[in-house]
Amino acid sequence: MIDLYYWTTPNGHKITLFLEETGLPYTVHPINIGKGDQFQPEFLRIAPNNRIPAIVDQSPRDGGTPISVFESGAILQYLAEKTGRFLSQDLRRRTETLQWLYWQMAGLGPMAGQNHHFSVYAPEPIPYAIDRYVRETGRLYGVLNKQLADRDYIADDYSIADMACYPWIVPHERQRQDLNDFPHLKRWFERIAARPATQRAYALVDSINPSTAAHDEQARKILFGQDAKTIK
What we know:
Glutaredoxin
């Protein structure tokens, strides 16, 4: 029913978390971003920003032709509305869930992503950049920790907000963050990690991208060497 164009990144994991929780049938189409699969014409037709994840829903609710969706937050919201799960219909609960989903998309993801880049992938260390993004990542962890002080999940019930945020906390050590500094966040993190659907979602890594080797020079050029000329 769902064709998932996926690679083993935090944004990719968001969608497998949802699909495994709901049991919605899906087929994985691996897009190896280190080899440039994201520039293939057939992928660009559904993901013009040349980024994973993307989906094609072969059986949309309106009964019409297949619908393609790119951007992980938009995909989570689309799937939640399709299934009626993990996004409340109550106005206040729905609003809270969506604002935290967008918080992740606009804040936690981009800042942690820059943290990863300058701490792990940059060809040479730039102390100012590393310090800037490690500190901002820590601030965002603090925001989430405060939100979780009196609840089990971000918007009380497990939702697409949790699915969006969790994969960006998984690499906390690489982000130079200690979960012991954020006890409410740590409790939430361990609760989600223990969910069977989470374990099934992350098990896909072993079959799709088992290598943990660092990106070679060619992969770095593909991943980090894009500019306006890349868009043809």
